[in-house]
Amino acid sequence: MNLCSVIVHARPDQRIAVQARLAALPGVEVQGGDENGKLIVTVEDCDSASAADTMMSFNSVEGVISSTLIYHYGGDDLNEEVIRETN
Q1: pTM of the model as a whole
Q2: Domains in the chain: ranges and CATH
Q3: Which of 7-16, 49-58, 64-73, 74-83 has the lowest mean pLDDT?
Q4: d(Cα 54, Cα 4) in Å, to the nearest integer?
Q5: Which of 70, 87, 5 is nearest to 43 (CA)?
Q6: How many of the other CB atoms lie within 10 Å of CB of 1?
Q7: Which residues lie below 8 Å from residue 12, measured CB to CB, with a gap of 6+?
Q8: Residue 84 to residues 28, 78, 80, 81, 87, Cα–Cα distance (Å)
Q9: First and final CA of the chain: distance in angstroms?
């Protein structure tokens, strides 16, 4: 399991549309942002795509200027913790 936090810089005039485009990608949640177009995004592995593949696709999303990985967690213990919490 991989869990990542990414800062995505979007064109300010397209920020709302970029948020929607990113949120439509598998494993992506937009946590917040500002009027200058900087968005805080979390990405995790899912059945249809790895977090790495999803993050690589960010730069092809219309309105995205750049994206920067700021945090990465990877490990099986996260999966084990989620399983324990759901049981």
Answers
A1: 0.81
A2: 2-86 (3.30.70.920)
A3: 74-83
A4: 11
A5: 5
A6: 15
A7: 35, 36, 37
A8: 23, 10, 6, 5, 5
A9: 19
